[in-house]
Design goal:
Blueprint lengths: L4 H12 L4 H15 L6 H22 L4 H22 L1 H10 L4 E4 L2 E4 L3 H14 L5 H7 L4 E2 L11 E6 L5 E5 L4 H17 L6 E5 L2 E5 L4
Antiparallel strand pairs: 1-2, 1-6, 3-5, 4-5, 6-7
Helix pairs in contact: 1-3, 2-4, 6-8
Amino acid sequence: MEQDIDALADYIGNELVYNPRAYKRLANSFFLIEMGMDDYTEDDIKDIIKALKKFDSFMSRISEKHNGRDEINKHLTDVLQMTSITSVAASDEKTERKKAIKINNVVINDNGSDIDTPTNAIVKVYKEFLGKNKELIDSYIEYERRMLTKEDRHDAFFRNRQELCKDNSGNTVYIGLSSSTSDKMTFVGKLCKFMKCKDKKAHVIWKYNDEVVYDSEQR
C-alpha cells in the first residue's frame, strides 16, 4: 500500500502521534467494537466515534487508489488479526496492571493531599510546579511538547485536556491528559528532573491507602 503513505502519515500525525501503543489500541478497539459496546463508558464511546470518523475520512482518501474499500479492508483485517493475537494473550496481565494502579493521595515536596484519580493527581503536580513558576513554562514546553501547549491542539495527547493556568503574558496553558496512568507517572518523573535542573525542589509520591505506588526519586 505504498501509494497510501502520504494519507497514512497525515492520519498518524493527527491521531496517533508519538505513542506506538496507540496502534495496538486502534486494533483492539476494532475487534471490541465487533463484539459490542456494552463494556464502554459514555466518554469511551464519544472518543471511539470521533476516532472512527477520522478513520473513515482516511479510508475515503485512499479508496480511489484501490479497487474499492473491500481491498483495503482485506489488508487492514490481516494486519489487525495479527495484532489482536498478542493483545488477547496479554489481556489478563493488562487488566491486573490497570486494577493495581489506584491513587488516593499525592505528596508534593512533603505536603500531602487527598486525590481521587491519576488525572487529578498529575494536574495538581503540574499546577504546583509550573503554575507557581510561570517563568519556566515556555522552557518546559520546549523540553516536553507532548504535555503542555498554548495552541488549540486536539491531537492524540490533547483529546482530553484541561486549562492548567495563565502564563505571565495572560495566555492560556493547557495540559494534555489523554495518556495512561503509567505514562502520567513517566511525565511526572520528567517534570521533576526538569525542575531540579532549574534548581527547584521536586519530589512527588503517589499513594493508595498509605501504600506508595509511585515515587519520583525511585524512577
